[in-house]
Write a structure and sequence with these properties.
mainly alpha; five-stranded parallel beta sheet; three-stranded antiparallel beta sheet; 65% helix
Length: 778
């Protein structure tokens, strides 16, 4: 009996333990299900609220076709007000099978889009303020991760066996376009299931996408008569033929204006003169119809939308605004805003925002309140937009400091946005802007820095010429910095003589005013760099690099000392002055040992690059180290979002070419060449073409006449952009292809430069001499 009791007791304990284990497992599973459910809710909310989507048959069909052909990145672009956001939101809602009631009958789209088997997340982004693109994305999918990598990982786990569309909208300046490149890289590198769709005003280059087949473009067209009639019908608006003609004329076919004109009635149209300001006049009539409380609310929405495209209803509590009954619904009825009743958020299109900000720019009480709000919340960049509108000399210091900080952080999207903000309000006029010369110069300086940072040198030159800022006789520090930037711009546009001339003028100013002495090394380096790029007088380049190094040493500027030494070492390696090169290389290595562990990231990356080049030219035969250094610096430049990474691809091409691994060499050269074409980097473009031509010659892998034609074009490009050394190399290869002796002027040119491996190639004209030719990005 006692034995049976023990046996029953053991069974009960085992069953109890099993029940406890199953309960614990059930609890864990239930918590996971709850977490996944919550996450799922976050990605299936309506992106289109009340709007009725109008037909974009061709554009949607193009999108579907691109997706089915495995296009990785699609850019939907078009002018402001063309309906990009509505198009992208509707696409997301179709993908997520979550159309609003107003759009639920659009079976012609939903059926074909469902077959894509995907989920979509829509992000409306902004480059106006302090928050980075990464932070904005993370905040819009709260709970999915604290970094982009975590979000990418969690989405792949959450959404099984389906494509995942990341839709990045409102990429409305080149700074944002540059910033999203790293976002695109992160998602595409994590999983092959990711697809990226980007909405922008301008067509984006996507410099990191080297495979053109992975990239697609869709330009949204304006509405024609059929589109407007369909839009009116779907929105239950009666439209007479004469009104239709008026709407087409007044709206220029832009959906944002079509909607405005339909909602506001056509009686006003007959009273407005048809001219370039017709829509401003029409908007003015609508604003005049608002009662005072509603008009004040519209102003708050307009001014707040400068720095935040989507506003929460709660923000108005910060300003103690008495909100009239149904105020947001009434503004929506006038088509001035979109009001999402579910999320309690407001969106005002930038065309309407710009009109309100321009018309009410003297509403200083509202602007002051918004400025103080951002001041008390410590949002430095946001403050600057409103300080510019307050037109007080007392604000100058804050504006200048904020812009200088953005320049140092390479926050190009903010710099471009502030410049566009000032241009919209005052058209680069200091008189109507009522701001000090110092503030004006800081805004222009930041704007030009932003344009140069994103590679738009032509637009930067137009701003410099338009603003007529005297760059040749600087009296203040800001003026001197602007002059330096102008000289740099001349260099980037391949106007080397003009650049050197301005640098020399600035040097004479430094010798007259010791306050500018801190810029001496930069001026001397700029002159040396121009001589080097021009490829006519390397001795002059070395002379000015030495002067730059001496000047930087006087002021203890480590990064400038090392930069001058690195660039000089490149010239010495080209000339194969190995004794001098070895001595300088050791000096550079010595200086590097004293750099702190934190900081100097760009300097450290550049050191790895020149170290790899030194190993190659000095024939140290340390191939593993050379390869490791190049791959390491490539990773560093990618993290830093430096376009110098494509120079590294060129150098990797050189590494493989000297190993006679021509397929790998061509792959890297082609990456560098593809980037150079997009970014109009003529030095990299021509040098990449030269390298690819050498690969074709050495492997007989291309039609000789095709290679010859490419070289002839390369010579023309070199002549047009003052790239003398690249031109000499191209002429040497052309002679090789045509089986002629190299012209004496080419050999003399190389001898003047003391370009040793090129001289040897000219004289021998054989496979081995081409293999041993070292190409340098001068």
């Amino acid at each position: 009996m006692e034995y049976k009791n023990i046996e029953y007791s053991s069974i009960i304990q085992t069953v109890s333990a099993a029940i406890a284990i199953f309960t614990a497992i059930g609890s864990i599973i239930w918590n996971i299900i709850k977490r996944l459910t919550r996450r799922k809710l976050n990605i299936t909310s309506y992106y289109v609220s009340q709007s009725v989507f109008s037909d974009r048959n061709q554009s949607l069909n193009n999108m579907i076709t691109m997706i089915q052909t495995e296009t990785k990145v699609i850019n939907v672009y078009g002018k402001r007000g063309i309906g990009k956001s509505a198009f992208l939101r509707f696409f997301c809602d179709c993908i997520n099978c979550n159309l609003s009631r107003e759009n639920s009958n659009r079976k012609e789209y939903t059926n074909s889009i469902k077959k894509l088997r995907a989920k979509a997340l829509y992000f409306q982004l902004s480059g106006d303020g302090s928050r980075s693109i990464n932070d904005q994305i993370i905040s819009q999918v709260s709970g999915l991760g604290l970094t982009l990598i975590e979000i990418a990982e969690n989405l792949v786990q959450l959404i099984w066996r389906k494509k995942i569309f990341i839709v990045l909208d409102n990429i409305n300046n080149a700074g944002l376009g540059k910033e999203i490149e790293s976002v695109i890289d992160t998602f595409l590198a994590y999983s092959d299931r990711y697809r990226i769709i980007v909405g922008s005003i301008e067509k984006q280059a996507f410099l990191n996408i080297m495979n053109e087949r992975q990239l697609g473009y869709i330009e949204l067209p304006t509405f024609d008569q059929k589109d407007i009639f369909d839009f009116a019908k779907r929105n239950s608006k009666k439209l007479q033929p004469e009104t239709l003609a008026q709407i087409i004329d007044f709206s220029d076919g832009l959906p944002i204006f079509v909607n405005l004109l339909l909602n506001s009635g056509s009686s006003v149209l007959s009273t407005i003169t048809y001219d370039k300001n017709r829509m401003d006049t029409y908007l003015g009539r609508i604003i005049d119809e608002l009662d005072e409380p509603l008009c004040i609310l519209a102003q708050y929405i307009g001014f707040l939308s400068i720095t935040s495209p989507t506003l929460s209803v709660e923000i108005f509590e910060e300003f103690n605004i008495a909100l009239p009954s149904m105020c947001f619904e009434r503004l929506e009825n006038f088509s001035l805003i979109e009001f999402n009743r579910k999320t309690k958020t407001i969106y005002m299109h930038e065309l309407f925002r710009d009109y309100i900000c321009s018309r009410f720019s003297r509403s200083t009480e509202i602007i002051k309140k918004i400025y103080k709000h951002y001041y008390h919340t410590g949002m430095q960049y946001e403050q600057i937009y409103y300080l510019i509108m307050l037109k007080s000399d007392d604000n100058s210091g804050t504006i200048v400091r904020g812009i200088q900080k953005a320049i140092s952080e390479e926050n190009f999207s903010f710099l471009l946005m502030v410049g566009e903000h000032y241009k919209r309000l005052y058209n680069w006029d200091t008189v109507s802007g009522h701001i000090s010369e110092r503030t004006f110069l800081a805004v222009v300086l930041g704007y030009v820095e932003g344009l140069i940072g994103v590679g738009n040198y032509l637009a930067a030159r137009e701003v410099v010429d338009r603003c007529k800022i005297a760059a040749r006789s600087p009296e203040t520090d800001l003026q001197f910095r602007f002059s330096l930037l102008t000289a740099k711009l001349y260099h980037l546009q391949n106007n080397y003589d003009e650049s050197v001339s301005l640098y020399l003028i600035l040097l004479s100013g430094i010798y007259r005013n010791k306050e500018f002495e801190k810029y001496e090394a930069r001026c001397l380096w700029g002159i040396a760099h121009a001589y080097r790029h021009q490829g006519r007088d390397f001795n002059a380049a070395i002379e000015f690099y030495d002067k730059s190094i001496s000047s930087a040493k006087k002021l203890g500027r480590k990064s400038e000392i090392l930069r001058g030494m690195r660039e000089k070492l490149t010239v010495l390696l080209c000339q194969q002055q190995m004794k001098s090169a070895k001595k300088l290389y050791r000096k550079i290595s010595f200086y590097m040992t004293f750099l702190p562990e934190d900081g100097y990231k760009e300097t450290k990356a550049s050191y790895k690059k020149i170290r790899a080049q030194y190993i190659s030219v000095s024939k140290k035969n340390n191939l593993d180290l050379e390869s490791s250094l190049l791959l390491n610096v490539l990773h560093d430049y990618k993290l830093q979002r430096k376009r110098l990474q494509y120079n590294v691809y060129f150098q990797l091409g050189e590494y493989y070419r000297h190993l006679e691994k021509y397929a790998s060499a061509k792959e890297n050269y082609e990456r560098a060449h593809s980037f150079s074409k997009k970014n109009q980097d003529f030095n990299l473009e021509t040098m990449s073409l030269i390298a690819l031509s050498i690969c074709n010659i050495c492997t007989n892998s291309s039609n000789i006449s095709d290679t010859e034609n490419e070289i002839v074009k390369c010579i023309d490009t070199c002549e047009q952009h003052n790239l003398n050394m690249n031109k000499l190399l191209s002429e040497m290869l052309l002679a090789y292809l045509q089986k002629k002796r190299v012209d004496k002027s080419v050999l003399n040119g190389f001898m003047q430069l003391r370009y040793t491996s090129a001289i040897n190639a000219c004289r021998k004209m054989d496979y081995k001499s081409l293999l041993n030719l070292y190409l340098f990005m001068m």
